[in-house]
Design goal:
Blueprint lengths: L7 E8 L6 E7 L8 E6 L4 E8 L1
Antiparallel strand pairs: 1-2, 1-4, 3-4
């Protein structure tokens, strides 16, 4: 019996502030096929900024 492929994919979120700070997380590529953006804390600039998915 063959295993089903995993729908979850590990992605990297990079700060839009230009600090180079990154978060790694997972997303379901079936539910969210496009690149995602989150507002998360960047400790380098010490405030919340937009983090965008990189490839």
């Amino acid at each position: 019996m063959a295993k089903a492929k995993n729908a979850r994919q590990t992605i990297i979120l990079e700060s839009s502030a230009g600090t180079g700070y990154r978060y790694s997380t997972q997303k379901n590529k079936r539910n969210h096929p496009n690149r995602i953006e989150f507002s998360k804390y960047d400790p380098v600039v010490r405030k919340h900024v937009v983090f965008k998915e990189t490839k």
